[in-house]
Amino acid sequence: MNLIIDIGNTFAKIAVFCNDEILEVVYDSNQTLEKLGEVFEKYSIDSGIVASVIPFSDDVKCSISSLPIDMLYLNADTPLPIVNLYETPETLGYDRIAAVVGANAVFPDKNLLVIDAGTCITYEFIDNNGRYHGGNISPGMEMRFKALNHFTGKLPKIAADGETPLLGKSTETAIRAGVIKGLEFEILGYISTLRDKYAELFVFLTGGDEFSFDERIKNIIFADRFLVLKGLNRILNYNNGRI
Q: Do 1-73 and 75-243 have matching folds?
């Protein structure tokens, strides 16, 4: 069994895989990993990988080092089951490359756009020959709501839930529609532009934020909130010679 530790900006996810099947996903503090010992005691784990978008805290270092197995730390030098064309791999977020690896494992012979909607929104492209070309980073939904409130004198902090018209009729709906519709149009723009160049483009959506996409978007997106975990599991298996 494989242990996958995914340390994000907001929280950590600890997952256990048997081959390619997720047995359990536990959400934990990204500063302590206090549930790690319980997960390890519950399963017979023989291999693991850890990846983080933030510096490891002392508590996290202690929790990982106490495990009775050697952990693979994902970094720029870790061998990958795809071709990485990114010009600065040492600056590439692990979550970005892991999501791409996860999507490529599902459709290895397809052109893929991978959209990860979390604290930030990332757009990644990998072609049908397994070559990762790179991608873009954009502010996430909550970050946009906070920025409008923080960097202005009068605009309030608005919740994502509520009426979202095409054009707002109040400051509240104008902000909500501006953020959420703006994200929808942004996503559609990336899909449309890449489909002009790559006709048979498959689109994956992952991450923590949920959007009220219209049917036009839903029909062309494969949603998988655990795509990064699956990608990390595949990278671990690749380094262990299992694929």
A: yes
- Which residues contact residue 150 at a Cβ distance below 8 angstroms, ignoring those fewer than 6 apart? none
**Which residue of the set 28, 95, 116, 127 is catalytic?**
95
Q: What is the CATH number assigned to the segment(s) 1-73?
A: 3.30.420.40
For the cut 70, the answer to whether the pLDDT of residue 213 exceeds it is no
The mean pLDDT of 43-59, rounded to a whole number, is 94
CA distances from 30 to 11, 13, 63, 109 (A): 5, 8, 11, 35
Name the more confident of 181 and 220: 181
Rounded distance, CA 140 to CA 183, Å? 9
Q: Where does residue 76 fall: left (phi above 0), alpha (psi -120 to 50 degrees), or beta otherwise?
A: alpha
Strands 21-28 and 12-18: antiparallel
Q: What is the structure's pLDDT at 209? A: 63
CA distance 13 to 226: 10
Over its C-alpha atoms, the chain yields an Rg (Å, rounded) of 19
Q: Where are the domains of the chain?
A: 1-73, 75-243
Assessment of whether the complete model's pTM goes beyond 0.70: yes
- Tell me whether residue 214 is one of the annotated catalytic residues: no
**Is 75-243 a CATH 3.40.50.300 domain?**
no
Q: Which neighbouring-strand residues pair with 112?
A: 126, 202
